[in-house]
Specification:
Layout: E1 2-8, H1 14-23, E2 27-30, H2 37-45, E3 53-57, H3 69-78, E4 84-89, H4 92-102, H5 114-124, H6 126-130, E5 134-137, H7 143-154, E6 164-171, E7 182-185, H8 206-213, H9 216-238, E8 243-250, H10 256-270, E9 274-279
Parallel strand pairs: 1-3, 1-4, 2-3, 4-5, 6-8, 6-9, 7-8
Protein backbone atom coordinates (compact mmCIF):
# COMPACT_ATOMS: atom_id res chain seq x y z
CA UNK A 1 0.00 0.00 0.00
CA UNK A 2 1.22 3.50 -0.84
CA UNK A 3 0.23 6.10 1.72
CA UNK A 4 0.90 9.78 0.96
CA UNK A 5 0.40 12.73 3.30
CA UNK A 6 -0.05 16.01 1.40
CA UNK A 7 0.79 19.08 3.47
CA UNK A 8 2.54 22.42 3.19
CA UNK A 9 1.81 26.12 3.28
CA UNK A 10 -1.69 27.40 2.57
CA UNK A 11 -2.00 28.62 -1.00
CA UNK A 12 0.82 26.45 -2.36
CA UNK A 13 -1.50 24.11 -4.26
CA UNK A 14 -2.37 21.21 -1.94
CA UNK A 15 -5.90 20.88 -3.34
CA UNK A 16 -4.51 20.82 -6.86
CA UNK A 17 -1.98 18.16 -5.84
CA UNK A 18 -4.79 16.05 -4.38
CA UNK A 19 -6.72 16.28 -7.66
CA UNK A 20 -3.61 15.19 -9.54
CA UNK A 21 -3.14 12.15 -7.31
CA UNK A 22 -6.83 11.33 -7.64
CA UNK A 23 -6.42 11.39 -11.44
CA UNK A 24 -3.66 8.76 -11.24
CA UNK A 25 -5.66 6.37 -9.10
CA UNK A 26 -5.20 7.46 -5.48
CA UNK A 27 -8.09 7.37 -3.02
CA UNK A 28 -8.01 10.88 -1.60
CA UNK A 29 -9.23 12.35 1.69
CA UNK A 30 -9.19 16.07 2.51
CA UNK A 31 -8.54 17.44 5.99
CA UNK A 32 -8.80 14.26 8.04
CA UNK A 33 -8.11 14.88 11.75
CA UNK A 34 -4.48 13.76 12.18
CA UNK A 35 -5.20 11.58 15.21
CA UNK A 36 -7.34 9.37 12.94
CA UNK A 37 -4.49 8.67 10.48
CA UNK A 38 -3.36 5.36 12.05
CA UNK A 39 -6.94 4.07 12.31
CA UNK A 40 -7.74 5.07 8.73
CA UNK A 41 -4.56 3.40 7.48
CA UNK A 42 -5.40 0.24 9.42
CA UNK A 43 -8.88 0.09 7.91
CA UNK A 44 -7.47 0.73 4.42
CA UNK A 45 -4.97 -2.10 4.78
CA UNK A 46 -7.84 -4.53 5.35
CA UNK A 47 -9.65 -3.76 2.08
CA UNK A 48 -7.85 -6.58 0.26
CA UNK A 49 -6.23 -4.41 -2.33
CA UNK A 50 -9.21 -2.16 -3.04
CA UNK A 51 -7.38 0.85 -1.56
CA UNK A 52 -3.76 0.32 -2.54
CA UNK A 53 -2.95 4.00 -3.06
CA UNK A 54 -4.14 6.59 -0.53
CA UNK A 55 -3.45 10.31 -0.28
CA UNK A 56 -4.75 12.75 2.30
CA UNK A 57 -4.39 16.48 2.78
CA UNK A 58 -3.52 17.44 6.35
CA UNK A 59 -2.84 21.09 7.09
CA UNK A 60 -3.37 23.90 9.58
CA UNK A 61 -7.06 24.24 8.66
CA UNK A 62 -7.51 21.68 11.42
CA UNK A 63 -6.46 24.28 13.97
CA UNK A 64 -5.35 22.76 17.26
CA UNK A 65 -5.85 19.26 15.83
CA UNK A 66 -2.88 19.79 13.50
CA UNK A 67 -0.49 19.29 16.43
CA UNK A 68 -1.51 15.61 16.35
CA UNK A 69 0.08 15.10 12.91
CA UNK A 70 3.54 14.06 14.10
CA UNK A 71 2.15 11.65 16.76
CA UNK A 72 -0.17 10.27 14.08
CA UNK A 73 2.74 9.64 11.75
CA UNK A 74 4.63 7.98 14.60
CA UNK A 75 1.60 5.71 15.01
CA UNK A 76 1.90 4.67 11.36
CA UNK A 77 5.57 3.89 11.85
CA UNK A 78 4.87 1.79 14.94
CA UNK A 79 2.20 -0.12 13.04
CA UNK A 80 4.67 -0.93 10.28
CA UNK A 81 2.77 1.11 7.70
CA UNK A 82 5.15 3.05 5.41
CA UNK A 83 4.19 6.57 4.35
CA UNK A 84 5.49 9.48 2.29
CA UNK A 85 5.09 13.20 2.90
CA UNK A 86 4.55 15.51 -0.08
CA UNK A 87 5.22 19.08 1.07
CA UNK A 88 4.12 22.00 -1.11
CA UNK A 89 5.94 25.30 -0.80
CA UNK A 90 5.74 28.77 -2.40
CA UNK A 91 7.36 32.15 -1.84
CA UNK A 92 5.74 34.77 0.39
CA UNK A 93 5.14 37.13 -2.54
CA UNK A 94 3.41 34.43 -4.58
CA UNK A 95 1.25 33.34 -1.64
CA UNK A 96 0.17 36.93 -1.00
CA UNK A 97 -0.69 37.39 -4.68
CA UNK A 98 -2.74 34.17 -4.74
CA UNK A 99 -4.66 35.13 -1.61
CA UNK A 100 -5.43 38.58 -2.96
CA UNK A 101 -6.61 37.14 -6.27
CA UNK A 102 -8.83 34.54 -4.60
CA UNK A 103 -10.03 37.02 -1.93
CA UNK A 104 -9.77 34.26 0.66
CA UNK A 105 -8.48 34.70 4.19
CA UNK A 106 -5.42 32.90 5.49
CA UNK A 107 -6.37 30.30 8.16
CA UNK A 108 -4.01 31.93 10.66
CA UNK A 109 -4.90 35.52 9.78
CA UNK A 110 -8.70 35.78 9.58
CA UNK A 111 -8.63 39.34 10.86
CA UNK A 112 -4.94 40.20 10.98
CA UNK A 113 -1.84 40.55 8.82
CA UNK A 114 -1.58 38.11 5.91
CA UNK A 115 2.21 38.04 6.00
CA UNK A 116 2.21 37.35 9.76
CA UNK A 117 -0.17 34.44 9.18
CA UNK A 118 2.13 33.04 6.48
CA UNK A 119 5.19 33.32 8.71
CA UNK A 120 3.39 31.70 11.65
CA UNK A 121 2.30 28.83 9.44
CA UNK A 122 5.88 28.30 8.25
CA UNK A 123 6.99 28.14 11.89
CA UNK A 124 4.34 25.53 12.73
CA UNK A 125 5.28 23.44 9.68
CA UNK A 126 9.04 23.45 10.34
CA UNK A 127 9.29 19.94 11.81
CA UNK A 128 6.89 18.41 9.29
CA UNK A 129 8.87 19.90 6.40
CA UNK A 130 12.06 18.32 7.76
CA UNK A 131 10.40 14.91 7.53
CA UNK A 132 9.10 15.43 3.96
CA UNK A 133 10.12 12.95 1.27
CA UNK A 134 9.21 15.29 -1.56
CA UNK A 135 9.24 19.11 -1.47
CA UNK A 136 7.82 20.99 -4.46
CA UNK A 137 8.02 24.76 -4.78
CA UNK A 138 5.03 25.84 -6.88
CA UNK A 139 5.94 29.55 -7.03
CA UNK A 140 6.50 29.54 -10.81
CA UNK A 141 4.52 26.43 -11.69
CA UNK A 142 1.26 26.16 -13.59
CA UNK A 143 -1.27 23.46 -12.58
CA UNK A 144 -0.14 21.45 -15.61
CA UNK A 145 3.50 21.62 -14.53
CA UNK A 146 2.58 20.55 -11.00
CA UNK A 147 0.71 17.56 -12.39
CA UNK A 148 3.72 16.62 -14.54
CA UNK A 149 5.95 16.70 -11.47
CA UNK A 150 3.56 14.58 -9.41
CA UNK A 151 3.32 12.04 -12.24
CA UNK A 152 7.12 11.82 -12.35
CA UNK A 153 7.28 11.12 -8.63
CA UNK A 154 4.28 8.86 -8.08
CA UNK A 155 3.90 7.11 -11.45
CA UNK A 156 7.29 7.06 -13.12
CA UNK A 157 9.10 6.62 -9.84
CA UNK A 158 11.80 9.14 -10.72
CA UNK A 159 13.85 10.51 -7.86
CA UNK A 160 12.99 14.17 -7.30
CA UNK A 161 16.08 16.16 -6.34
CA UNK A 162 14.03 18.91 -4.72
CA UNK A 163 15.16 21.57 -7.24
CA UNK A 164 12.85 22.74 -10.01
CA UNK A 165 14.56 24.65 -12.83
CA UNK A 166 12.60 27.22 -14.82
CA UNK A 167 14.25 28.58 -17.98
CA UNK A 168 12.70 31.78 -19.30
CA UNK A 169 13.60 33.38 -22.63
CA UNK A 170 12.97 37.12 -22.76
CA UNK A 171 13.72 40.34 -24.62
CA UNK A 172 15.90 42.94 -22.90
CA UNK A 173 13.77 45.69 -24.40
CA UNK A 174 10.85 44.38 -22.33
CA UNK A 175 12.85 44.12 -19.11
CA UNK A 176 14.62 41.33 -17.24
CA UNK A 177 12.25 38.88 -15.45
CA UNK A 178 12.24 40.01 -11.83
CA UNK A 179 12.32 36.48 -10.40
CA UNK A 180 15.50 35.44 -12.25
CA UNK A 181 18.30 33.89 -10.18
CA UNK A 182 20.72 33.74 -13.11
CA UNK A 183 20.60 35.86 -16.28
CA UNK A 184 22.55 35.13 -19.48
CA UNK A 185 22.81 37.70 -22.27
CA UNK A 186 22.98 36.02 -25.72
CA UNK A 187 22.95 39.20 -27.79
CA UNK A 188 26.53 38.41 -28.88
CA UNK A 189 25.27 35.53 -31.05
CA UNK A 190 24.41 35.98 -34.77
CA UNK A 191 21.00 37.66 -35.04
CA UNK A 192 18.37 36.10 -37.38
CA UNK A 193 16.49 39.40 -37.24
CA UNK A 194 18.78 40.76 -39.95
CA UNK A 195 18.09 37.86 -42.30
CA UNK A 196 15.08 38.72 -44.47
CA UNK A 197 13.87 35.09 -44.66
CA UNK A 198 14.11 34.63 -40.88
CA UNK A 199 13.06 37.99 -39.49
CA UNK A 200 9.34 37.17 -39.12
CA UNK A 201 9.96 33.66 -37.79
CA UNK A 202 10.73 32.70 -34.19
CA UNK A 203 13.28 30.52 -32.43
CA UNK A 204 10.78 27.66 -32.57
CA UNK A 205 11.30 27.45 -36.35
CA UNK A 206 13.91 24.96 -37.58
CA UNK A 207 15.49 27.46 -39.99
CA UNK A 208 16.08 29.92 -37.13
CA UNK A 209 17.44 27.16 -34.90
CA UNK A 210 19.91 26.07 -37.59
CA UNK A 211 21.03 29.66 -38.15
CA UNK A 212 21.76 30.24 -34.45
CA UNK A 213 23.21 26.81 -33.72
CA UNK A 214 25.67 26.79 -36.65
CA UNK A 215 27.75 29.46 -34.93
CA UNK A 216 30.82 28.04 -33.09
CA UNK A 217 30.19 30.61 -30.34
CA UNK A 218 26.75 29.07 -29.71
CA UNK A 219 28.15 25.62 -29.03
CA UNK A 220 30.93 26.97 -26.82
CA UNK A 221 28.46 29.12 -24.88
CA UNK A 222 26.13 26.17 -24.24
CA UNK A 223 29.05 23.98 -23.14
CA UNK A 224 30.30 26.63 -20.70
CA UNK A 225 26.85 27.38 -19.26
CA UNK A 226 26.14 23.66 -18.87
CA UNK A 227 29.42 23.16 -16.99
CA UNK A 228 28.58 26.10 -14.73
CA UNK A 229 25.09 24.78 -13.97
CA UNK A 230 26.35 21.27 -13.32
CA UNK A 231 28.60 22.79 -10.68
CA UNK A 232 25.93 25.07 -9.20
CA UNK A 233 22.90 22.75 -9.12
CA UNK A 234 24.19 20.17 -6.58
CA UNK A 235 25.40 23.00 -4.36
CA UNK A 236 22.03 24.76 -4.57
CA UNK A 237 20.32 21.51 -3.60
CA UNK A 238 22.75 20.99 -0.71
CA UNK A 239 21.89 24.46 0.61
CA UNK A 240 18.16 23.71 0.46
CA UNK A 241 17.25 25.77 -2.63
CA UNK A 242 14.04 24.39 -4.20
CA UNK A 243 13.73 26.54 -7.30
CA UNK A 244 16.19 27.98 -9.83
CA UNK A 245 15.00 30.53 -12.39
CA UNK A 246 17.31 31.07 -15.36
CA UNK A 247 16.75 34.01 -17.70
CA UNK A 248 18.07 33.85 -21.28
CA UNK A 249 17.86 37.24 -22.96
CA UNK A 250 18.29 38.66 -26.45
CA UNK A 251 17.05 41.96 -27.86
CA UNK A 252 13.40 41.11 -28.52
CA UNK A 253 13.03 37.65 -26.97
CA UNK A 254 11.98 36.15 -30.28
CA UNK A 255 14.97 34.43 -31.90
CA UNK A 256 18.28 33.77 -30.15
CA UNK A 257 17.03 33.56 -26.56
CA UNK A 258 14.30 31.10 -27.58
CA UNK A 259 16.77 28.81 -29.35
CA UNK A 260 19.22 28.87 -26.45
CA UNK A 261 16.50 28.37 -23.81
CA UNK A 262 15.13 25.34 -25.68
CA UNK A 263 18.62 23.91 -26.15
CA UNK A 264 19.46 24.34 -22.48
CA UNK A 265 16.11 22.77 -21.53
CA UNK A 266 16.96 19.71 -23.65
CA UNK A 267 20.48 19.40 -22.22
CA UNK A 268 19.38 19.61 -18.58
CA UNK A 269 16.37 17.33 -19.09
CA UNK A 270 18.64 14.65 -20.56
CA UNK A 271 20.73 14.94 -17.40
CA UNK A 272 17.56 14.02 -15.41
CA UNK A 273 16.96 17.47 -13.93
CA UNK A 274 13.40 18.74 -13.47
CA UNK A 275 13.17 21.55 -16.03
CA UNK A 276 10.44 23.75 -17.49
CA UNK A 277 10.80 26.33 -20.25
CA UNK A 278 8.76 29.44 -21.02
CA UNK A 279 9.18 31.99 -23.81
CA UNK A 280 7.86 35.18 -22.24
CA UNK A 281 8.22 37.62 -25.12
CA UNK A 282 8.10 35.39 -28.18
CA UNK A 283 4.79 36.82 -29.37
CA UNK A 284 5.23 40.45 -28.44
CA UNK A 285 6.11 41.57 -31.99
CA UNK A 286 3.72 39.36 -33.91
CA UNK A 287 0.43 39.28 -32.05
CA UNK A 288 0.60 36.42 -29.62
CA UNK A 289 2.62 33.42 -30.68
CA UNK A 290 2.08 30.59 -28.20
CA UNK A 291 3.78 27.28 -27.75
Amino acid sequence: MRFVIITGVSGAGKSQAMKCLEDIGFFCVDNLPPELIPKFAEISSKTRGKMEKIAMVIDIRGGELFKDLLPGLEGLKEAGLPYEILFLEASDSVLIKRYKESRRMHPLAPEGSLIKGIHEERRILTEVKKKANHIIDTSSMTPRQLKEEIVKIFVEGRVFSGLIININSFGFKYGIPIDSDLVFDVRFLPNPFYEKSLKELTGLNEAVKEYVMKSPETKEFLDRVTDLLEFLIPNYIKEGKTQLVIGIGCTGGKHRSVVIADSLHKILSEKQHTVFVDHRDIGKDRGGVTR
